[in-house]
Amino acid sequence: MAVIAIDYTPAVRQQAGIGRIIRGQIEALVALNPGFDLRLFVAGHVTDADRRSAPLPLHPTLIDERNLVRIWHRLDLGFPRVEWFTGGPLDLFHATDFALAPTRARRKLLTVHDLAFVFYPNAAMPGLHHYLNVVARRSVHRADGVIADSHHTAHDLTEQWQVAPERITVVQGAVDHAHFKPIIDSERQRTVRQRYAIGERPYILALSRLEPRKNFARLIEAFAIARQEANLPHRLIIGGGKGWLYDEIFRRVGELNLHEHVHFTGFVDDADLPVLYSAADFFAYPSLYEGFGLPIVEALACGAPVLTANNSCLPEAGGPGALYIDAEDVHSIAEGLIRLATDKALRNQLRTAGLQHAAHFTWERSARQLLDAYSRTLT
After folding, report:
1. Element (H, E) at 14
2. Of 108, 106, 171, 164, whose CA–CA distance to 139 is shortest?
3. Residue 75: pLDDT above 80?
4. CATH class of 3-174+362-378
């Protein structure tokens, strides 16, 4: 039986984004009972709650994650190795978050979620930007195989870093359809609206960490144009915590005198997301670049039509359930907002198509793609 160690650290440390993808994939992989000896490695300490929520026993380190990163990638030392913590020799080590930890595993597999830091220098803080450009690139060429979250990211890896296509396996994200589904319960919607001070007006939902790549400043400017040209009754509700370089986002609201019409909820609890998606007239996600676009699929699964950009992997995520715009053109975004806000028939058409498209993105499907990556790398 092949022994496989999986870096489960993002699943423990990150609630959304990459953490959600790794949790979903590995839980579904364990449920498939694939016939491997799977061991979940975690950099740093874990809590009792972490252990209870994990699908398998966790193998934490005695050194915290930050110091491990310094030892492994700043000093480029080859220890401590992953197998020191996971109980012996490994046939395969799967590094799930851009960086390959030291290991003597027979084969090594690396997940690269996107190359946003290559195309958009402000997609990460300066220190992280430098780290990813150095460590991720080096890790890609040390690995025996590479996983990409989308076909577009696979293409980027080949174009930017000359990774041979045969070394790449696409393993797409998914959604938990038992959780992300249309919520039509008016009482639940009323409660969640009150919790986030949304009010009773129709609203357009946008959701992500506040950072430049998510393109909120242009979205707000486009919303101002759409309000002026079409007299929209909607509020723009922006959910998500603060990331970096977010001052321009709040400044744009003030400059355009939109305080009564643009509302920031802060971090949204995962339990409330399906209600917010379901109650919105539509979901706006005009990002400049994504590796997969998980919120798009979540929104579609909840019956929300989507307005998103025609760049990177976003058409893969949105499929026929989205209306596409040019993310760098404010007027293109405004036109999209007006169309979706005023055309109920279009929203209904996208809602139906989106539900059908999102149904394909299951964690079992994702886990089977991951299992294929393991099998290909081990042979």
Report:
1. none
2. 108
3. no
4. alpha beta
pTM above 0.85, yes or no: yes
Q: Which amino acid is at 113?
A: H
Whole-angstrom Cα Rg for the chain: 21
The Cα–Cα gap between 256 and 4 comes to 54
One-letter identity of residue 120: Y
Superfamily of domain 186-358: Glycogen Phosphorylase B; (3.40.50.2000)
Every domain of the chain with CATH number 3.40.50.2000 lies at 3-174+362-378, 186-358
Read off the pLDDT band of 123 (50, 70, 90): low
Per residue in 223-273, pLDDT tens?
999 999 999 999 999 999 998 888 999 999 999 999 999 999 999 999 999
Torsion of the alpha carbons at 207, 281, 298 and 114, rounded to the nearest 10: -50
Which two structure tokens, joined as six digits, stand for 331?
């007027």
Q: What is the mean pLDDT of the chain?
A: 95
Listed in sequence order, the DSSP H helices in the chain are: 9-13, 18-32, 48-53, 65-69, 83-86, 116-119, 126-131, 137-142, 151-161, 186-195, 216-230, 247-255, 273-279, 294-301, 314-318, 330-342, 344-358, 363-378
